Amino acid sequence: MERTRPDGRRWTFRRILFLGLFALVLIVGVALAGPLWWRFASDGDGYEQQGFDIEQMVASRLTRVRESEAAWGFVIEDGSVNLWLATRLVAWLEHDGDLTLPEGWTSPQVRFGSDLIQIGVRSPFSLIVVIDFRPRIRDESVVFELVGTSIGSVPVPLAIGASMVPAFGPGDGDGGEGEASMDRLSVPRLIKLADGRRVWIEDVEVGSGELGLRFRTLR
Amino acid sequence: MSQRSDDQRVVITGMGWVTPLGHDLDTVWKQLMASGSGMAPITRFDASTFPTKFAAEVRDFDVNQFVDDPSVHAHAGPNTQFALGAARQAWTQAGLTPGSFDPLRAGMYLGAGEGVLDFDNYVAVNLSGWNEESRRVDGVPWVKKALEMMEAVNEIEQEPNMPLAHLGREFGLRGPAYNCLTACAASTQAIGEATDILRRGDADMMLSGGTHTMIHPLGVTGFNRLTALSEHDGDPTEASKPFDRTRGGFVMGEGSGMVILETLKHAKARGATPLVEVRGYGSSCDAYRITDIQPDGRGAADAMHQALTQAGIDPHTVGPDGRPAVHYISAHGTGTKENDSIETRAIKRVFGDLAPAIPMSSIKSMMGHLIAAAGAVELITSAMAIRHGMIPPTRNLHHPDPDLDLDYVPNDARVATVDVALSNNFGFGGQNDTLVISRFED
Known about the structure:
Helix content of chain A: 25-40%
Number of strands of chain A: 11
Oligomer: heterodimer
Largest interface: A-B, 23 and 25 residues
Shape of chain A: elongated
Distance between the termini of chain A: 96 Å
Number of helices of chain B: 13
CATH superfamily of the largest domain in chain B: Thiolase/Chalcone synthase
Strand content of chain B: 15-25%
Mean pLDDT of chain A: 84
Number of strands of chain B: 16
CATH architecture of the largest domain in chain B: 3-Layer(aba) Sandwich
CATH class of the largest domain in chain B: Alpha Beta
Number of domains of chain B: 2
Strand order of the largest sheet of chain B: 7-4-8-9-1-10-16-15-11-12
Largest sheet of chain A: 7 strands, antiparallel
Radius of gyration of chain A: 23 Å
Low-confidence stretches of chain B: none
Number of helices of chain A: 5
Shape of chain B: globular
Helix content of chain B: 25-40%
Structural class of chain A: alpha+beta
Distance between the termini of chain B: 7 Å
Largest sheet of chain B: 10 strands, mixed
Strand content of chain A: 25-35%
């Protein structure tokens, strides 16, 4: 009995189609899975307490009464920030009525790279949208320049990535508590403490896996 | 000196307490000065399988030594008995006698906790009605057993207002009568509210304070479940470690603190000696989670601000001697990670750069947490600090927490001139109450 075989052109077309579909599935899969570093874990032995301890460490250093205006600082690892984000962020947002996560956006996590801060957030479409920032001190502000966006691990053009995130949009230009535009976010360098004291952000330095911050507490 | 008129100024003329460290002012004060401890294994029930097996119990207390007719108080629960003991001491120190006050102008405002459940009988009744198949209590056998076993008088003695009833009868107080049960801040709130009743002219004198015991299976289990109690495995006297890096929760205490509050006008008229003056009172709600304190201490700071404002004290100023305007803070200082961190932050929020210059301590490290009675006992401690020129220590503070950077008076009492003291108490539900008292000057 004679077996039928696809001719060469049809076979090649099928292979291309198969590879194309495979690539599409792979891209969708990678996009859905999120980047390798994005792991949101809020439940675990002692997680809540560890998140609280991190919060205490940062808050107590910011509010510490200091003898002089000499610079001081601390280094925090992205793992610690992520633990705090997973266990304490919701509580903080709850007690500060001015801040909320945009509706449907949940589970932010960060990764610190060389001169780069990556923030991955689960979007309302269950995709992890990642925004890459480069922090810069500029005059009275700390500016976070938008340098890259991706969906999961798949890079997408800046304009597309930024347009997906509600935090970005035309700035109001008043230079007040903070500002966001299509290509950057900025926050004032001056932090006002509740007792009237002020803390000045001296420097922000991002290295592999850690963020270094330096301050001066003004008298 | 206060700018208020004598009928607006409120003074304390008598104080008393029943605590795990003793049943009279001097004994307890000496224990506090010696950094003593009232903590030991629980004896009230078999706690050997509980996560927390120790507490600070009131020991060797006999209410009959403090009341005129013991038969009147024969069914009084332990919280009422403690209240009677503390109130009798305050009454005696204030020099009150029948006929020296108008009963209708003499009231009470307590922060008294609920009484103790008749636990054994209650469990026996429940077991008799338990239907294993339906996993529910069957009302028919339950009520049959309940009517057999449950005593009406024991049921009514569990009501939080029963200490009021017994005190009113014992001392002939027929004026305004209130009780608030705002968790661990209850008796601070009671004394603050009693002060306001006097200032608005609704009474001439008030018996105020708190009383409570939660050293029973339900109380210990509840706080264990809330992960608020220390589960220290070792010497119970080392379990309560406020402000220490290794702190792991509070130790349950019990007892009562009572004060006699009077308008200065009334105290003068009957020749009483003012011990200290109540200058300010503040109360606030975190408006946050019921089991968590607001993270930045805003609610606690609000209560302190209110009390200082009412007292006419600017927390950012220093006196002629270069010291802050407040010379001692009796901290709520439970010894939980959360409370001690956030209270520290709240105090900095109020006093700013001056916060490290104010000594503060937690006597819960020595006598445990008296829950609703804690505020009154700690206010009395503050008054004793003013009168004796000594500040009680925070016991078991051997490992400073790098994140807690104020002066917690570790381990040893300190000689200090205290003219103004502030006492904080906070409770589950985000309740915050603060009192400010000062040395009395006419």
